[in-house]
Amino acid sequence: MDKMLLKFISFFYPVLEKAGVNTAQLNEILRVKLLMDIRRPKSAFANRRAKTTKKPKAANTSTSSIRGDIGLVIIGCLASVLLFLFKMPMVGQIAYFSMFMILLALTLVSDFTTVLIDTRDQFIIIPRPVDDRTLALSRFMHITIYITRVALLQGLPGMIMIGFVDGILAVPLFFIQIIEATLLCVLLINVLYFILMRSTSAQRFKDVISYFQIAISIIIFAVYYLVPRLINISVLRHTNILAYKWVYVLPPVWIASVNEVLLHASRANMLIVFSAALGLILPIIGVWFVAKVLAPGFNRKLAMVATSDGSSNSIANTKKQYKTDFRDKLANLLAPDPIENAGFKITWKLAARTREFKMKTFPAFAYVPIYFIYFAFNNAGQTLSEKYEQVQKGAGYIFLIYLTTIVLSSVLQNVSNSGKYKSAWVYYALPIDTPGKILAGMYKAIIVLYFLPYCLVVSIVTVCIWGPLTINDLILAFSVCTMYGMFMALFMVKGLPFSQPVIVKARGRMVISLLILGLMVGVGFGHSFLRNWETLIWLLIIPFLLGNWLMFHHYKKQSWDDVEAAAADI
Fold it and tell me: Which of 43, 297, 422, 557 has the fewest Cβ atoms nearer than 10 Å?
């Protein structure tokens, strides 16, 4: 299929030559990159296994590829249900291609963001006589060919289903619509990336891409869990979004308009005809725009991205100095011991700078309200206002408070991992007798930087919805959650900050994690049962705070043997 798609791309070569692209070099670069793709595991479907000391078996590329293809077809079957869901066929196609393009965008972001900004070409291709336009467009075409293969597999069930909706003539037209949707999706994301690279600093570009990936994962997670709970499907069936003029600026409407114009001309108005023409013309204009306008200077900007970890300008340094002063004062207040103070500062600063850490932990902050809404609004046959009133009268706030342990658990499980873990030699080079003090500073930084601010936000929301009588429950739940964090730290997190490789945790630790979680769930149910005894809740706060202090004091005494034993268990 890759060879067929490469042949299809060659039809655009006359246009690209006029834009200044060396098509012979472009064809050879694409051929090699597609060959390398066969050997590169895809993040969306790769089998992630723990690293062992044994020699790994040779990967069965064919079997892995078949499994990935079957997964894409299954996803396409689920999406094709939207073609039958709506009363108006065009609305059904708009919904289908909206999901289709979102899934493609997710694949692009997860698998090919690193391809677009891969700096290895700077050392392999640039020393050859290859210009900016050819290299930048090779990245664009490479992504287009790969994602087209994904799109065809994902759209195969839709091509079959559309025959039952609009007849056999709609099947080849639907194939053209899938190609159109794929080109538009690739074009929009690549144009966005190119514009960001040309208009922002290299460091800002990396930050924007990271936060964009985090936002995409949160949106997909929220839509999957919340839409079935908050939207009545029977009401949605009769929805006519075409009554709103603003929807005609959306690409899925342009794609669906092609079917309406060619197969149902009697239902098409001038606005739909214009939308269909826009969807067919824009991909061709977009390819020319990328090659002629955005591609020049691409390699120079890419080199800046590769070296963007250097020093920043004086204004940035001034702001950075202000933040550093604030962290120093807070660290001196909360961690007066010099070694503990160092662990506090290292954790705070590296956590704020490390992108891979933020991408793993930040989604957990959104999972808490999503999970709460999913379980709290699970009453069928009620309106949204009725569900809210029922939640307000109940004790769901206790469940919400204890859900914040998701954030604490996520941070603790990732704070010891880093892709640059070899820099941790500095811990062992310093004359430190008790590494537990570094771990104590690390734990304090996690609580102060992530968990405490998040709990304050949740507490404000809780008091606003359920009233001030929940304050004692909030304090007790916070002390229980921090005790859960101490259990996690004592039994599962003995690695120094960002000192271990990013690999799968051992199975024994999973059993310990489940036992700790089960204990906290039991405490949470007990809290829910005793919530009406206000005085008892206030009294229970004291032993839990005392337990936290004793566990933290023990955690602070961890030795080098404990740290090395924990590292050996991974």
Answer: 422
Q: Which two tokens stand for residue 397?
A: 């706030």
- Compute the Cα dihedral for 91, 96, 101, 106 and give only its sign: positive
**How far apart, in whole angstroms, are the C-alpha atoms of residue 406 and residue 513?**
12
pLDDT of residue 25: 85
Same domain for 328 and 296? no
Tokens of 374: 């999913």
Residues 119 and 204 in one domain: yes
**Whether residue 249 sits in one domain with residue 352:** no
Measure CA of the first residue to CA of the last residue in the chain; give whole Å: 41
Q: Which residues of 335-369 are buried (b: 16+ CB within 10 A; e: fewer)?
A: beeebbbbbbbbbbebbeebeebbebbbbbbbbbb
Two tokens, residue 383: 């309106």
- Of 305, 337, 353, the residue that ends a domain is 305
Residue 296: pLDDT band (50, 70, 90) is low
Residue 212 sits in the same domain as residue 115 = yes
pLDDT digits 0-9 by tens, 297-312 = 555 665 565 555 444 4
Instruction: Give a three-class secondary structure readout of 480-516.
Output: HHHHHHHHHHHHCCCCCCCCECCCCCCHHHHHHHHHH
Quote the pLDDT of residue 61.
Answer: 47
**Nearest CA-CA partner of 147 in 216, 100, 79:** 100
Residue 509: pLDDT band by 50, 70, 90 thresholds? low
Q: Cα–Cα distances in Å, from 160 out to 81, 163, 319? A: 12, 6, 58
Residues 346 and 472 in one domain: yes
The answer to whether 421 and 499 are in contact (CB under 8 A) is yes
Task: Count structural domains, the chain.
Answer: 2
Decide: 156 and 76 in contact? Cβ < 8 Å: yes
Q: Which two tokens stand for residue 100?
A: 């289709």
Q: Where are the alpha helices (DSSP H) in 417-470?
A: 425-429, 436-446, 452-466
The two three-digit tokens of residue 103, written as one number: 């899934």
Among the ranges given (265-269, 351-355, 378-382, 472-476), the one the predictor scored with the smallest mean pLDDT: 378-382
Q: Structure pTM?
A: 0.65
Range of the domain at 179: 2-47+63-305
Residues 96, 170: contact at Cβ < 8 Å? no
What CA–CA distance (Å, rounded) separates 481 from 502?
Answer: 26
In a domain, 56, yes or no: no
Are residue 276 and residue 327 in the same domain, yes or no? no
- How many helices (DSSP H) and strands (DSSP E) are in the chain? 28, 0
Average pLDDT, integer, range 252-264:
85
> For tokens 């709460």, what's the residue?
372
Residue 52 placed within a domain: no
Residues 32-60 have pLDDT tens digits of 887 776 665 554 434 433 343 344 444 44
Residues 458 and 563 in one domain: yes
Distance (Å, whole) CA 412 – CA 446: 8
DSSP per-residue string spanning 224-236: HHHHHHHS-HHHH
Structure tokens that stand for 114 in this block: 């690193």
| 57 located within any domain | no
Among residues 44, 28, 59, 25, the alpha carbon closest in space to that of 113 is found at: 44
Same domain, 410 and 262: no
Q: In the listed set 254, 278, 305, which residue is the last one of a domain according to the structure?
A: 305
